Amino acid sequence: MSERFLVFPSELFERTFKDLLPKLQFNWQQRFRRPLPDSVKFALDNFERIWIADGSTLEALFRKLKSLEDLKTGQLAGKICTVIDLVTRLPVEVWFHTNPAASETNFETSLLNLLPAKTLVLLDRGFYHFQFLQQLINQEVHFITRLKAKASIKYLKIFSYDHLLKDRLIQLGTVRRGAPVLTLRLIEIKVGKTSYSYITSVLDPQILPPYVVADLYRRRWRIEEAFYTVKRLLGLSYLWTGSINGVKLQVWATWLFYAVLVDLGDAVADELSLPFDRISLEMIFRGLYHFSVANDKGKADDPIKYFAERENQDLGVVKYLRKPVSKLDLSPFPAPS
User: Fold this and answer.
1) Residue 101 falls inside a structural domain
2) Is the pLDDT of residue 242 over 80?
3) Cα–Cα distance for residue pair 312/315, rounded to 1 Å
4) What strand order describes the sheet that includes 182-191?
5) How many domains does the chain have?
6) Rounded to the nearest 10 degrees, what angle do helices 244-272 and 10-29 cross at?
7) Using CA atoms, how far apart are residues 198 and 213, in angstroms rounded to an integer?
8) pLDDT tens sequence across 168-221
9) Is 102 contained in some domain?
10) Scanning 108, 229, 258, 324, which has its CA 20 to 30 A from the CA of 286?
C-alpha cells in the first residue's frame, strides 16, 4: 500500500474527477422538482452562476505507512483551495499547494483565470485584497464578502437606513501603497444583539436587495460543510503518505467521491421534492451500508428510491426543521422596521 501511494499516478483521479463534473452538472439540470432558495432564484435572474471560494489547511499526516517513518510528528500536508457552486453544491475546481501556511492570496491568479463574467462569488475575508477585488470588478465578476474592522470608509449615498438595516454606497480604502479605492455597497444588518456587515460590488439594490445579500452570504457556509464532509466523513483528515503524489492521490479521490455523493443527495431531494438543504449527506453516506444489505437480499436496486421511501426515513436522510422558515424580504428598499 505504501509503495502504491508513491507511484500510482494521481493525475488519473484528477482527470476522472474533472471529466465527471460536466456529467453531474447535466444531471442537476434534468431535475426540476426540488425547490431552490429564494435568494438563489433571485440572484440567478442577473447572474449566470453563484460560486463560493475558500481555502483549507490539510491535517497533519497520519503516520501509519513506512513512507512516513522518517517524518516528524505533526507535519501538515499542504493547503487546498476549492470553488463550490452554491446552486448545484458541486465542486467546480480544487487546487493544491504544498505549503500549509500559504494564504488565500496564493490562489488569486488561479481564481481570476477561472471566474467568467456574470459570476457572483462569495469570498471569505482571506481574499480581502483590494487589488484582487478590483481585478474581479474589471472582469465583470461581482463579489460579496465581510467588512474588516477599522476599514477606511467614506459614505456616498443612503439606500436604506434604520436601526435594523443600513444599506449605503461607500468608498472603501485610502490611496496608499498603490491600492485602489473601491466603490462598493455596505450592508449592515442587526439580528438581536449581533450586527453583521457585508460589502458587495453590486451597487444597485434592485439587482441584489440587502436581505438577499445577507442570505446569500449566510450560504457561504456551504463550503465549510463541504470541507467538513471531505475531511471528517470521507477521511481526508487522515493523510496516509508523505509524498506529494500520494497526498494528491487522496485529495482527488476524496473530492471525486464527494461529487458523486452530492449528486446522489440532489437526486434524493428531487425525488422527495424537497430543498437540497433538507438532505443530510452524512446520513446518505452512512445509509449506503443499509442499501447494500437490502441490495444483496434483492429488496432494493435503486439507491435514490431506497432513500426516498417512507419506510426508510428512520435512516435520518431528511433533516428535521428546527424552526419554521420565514419568508425572505426581496424588496430593494425594505420598509423601516
Assistant:
1) yes
2) no
3) 6
4) 91-97, 79-85, 49-57, 119-123, 141-146, 194-200, 182-191, 165-172, 153-161
5) 1
6) 20
7) 8
8) 999 998 777 778 899 999 999 999 899 999 999 999 999 999 999 999 999 999
9) yes
10) 324
Task: Measure CA 11 to chain center.
Answer: 24
C-alpha cell at 3: 509503495
* Beta carbons within 8 Å of 99's beta carbon, 6+ residues apart: 78, 79, 106
Please, what is the Cα angle at 97 between 231 and 14, to 5 degrees? 70
Q: In angstroms, how far apart are the furthest CA atoms of the chain?
A: 70
Which grid coordinates belong to 301? 436496486
- 80, part of any domain: yes
One-letter amino acid at 65 equals L
Residue 331: pLDDT above 80? yes
**What is the rounded CA–CA span in Å between residue 113 and residue 141?**
11
Query: Is 305 within the bounds of a domain?
Result: no
- List the one residue out of 249, 283, 276 whose CA is nearest residue 17: 249
Length of the chain: 337
What DSSP assignment string belongs to 50-118? Answer: EEEEEEEE--BB-TTSGGGTTSPTT-B--EEEEEEETTT--EEEEEEES-TT--GGGGHHHHHHHPPTT
Question: What is the reported pLDDT for 74?
Answer: 44
Please indicate whether residue 204 or residue 79 has the higher confidence score (pLDDT): 204
**Other C-beta atoms lying within 10 Å of the C-beta of residue 313:** 12
Q: What is the dihedral of CA 280, 286, 287, 291, to 10 degrees?
A: 140
Q: What is the pLDDT of residue 324?
A: 78
Report which of 294, 262, 296 is spatially closest to residue 279, judged by C-alpha positions. 262
The CATH number of residue 228's host domain is 3.90.350
Give the C-alpha distances (Å, rounded to integers) separating 5 from 14, 73, 245, 249, 263: 15, 19, 7, 7, 28
The Cα-based distances of 99 to 154, 172, 317 in angstroms read 38, 32, 37
Residue 262: φ, ψ to 5°: -65, -45
**What's this model's pTM, rounded to 2 decimal places?**
0.91
